[in-house]
Amino acid sequence: MSVRAYYKPGHSDTPVIASTAEELDRVIDDLLKQPYEFSMANLYIAERESENPVVELSIGVDPDRGVGGLQYLHGSDGRWFSKGRLSTYDEVVYCYYGNGCTYPRDSELPLDAIRAAAAQFLHTGGARPDSVTWQPA
To answer: pTM of this prediction?
Structure first.
């Protein structure tokens, strides 16, 4: 299995491919270096990307605070957000190609938990990671 990651200009034509947890860590490391307008990545299992319903894991990051949030989407399972600690901000917003995506205030997780969930998404072929707690959208 491999993941296709989309999070910065040029990825719509040429996404980043990650086939191991280590490669996925490098994707997250690069995401952490991006400006706020590109603070969210959408991940798809490459071998399932054309399936309907789509299976997607979105990762939003706040590098200054060392936290992030997750959103999982699957047609038969619905839309879910990570459930973590309450943010110090009144609103939690990550940007995907400049478009703001609002997450629940209690969706923040430490980056280690984000990395573990992304690796689990890869290794299970797109299942909702059970390494974190989820809340319905």
So the answer is: 0.94
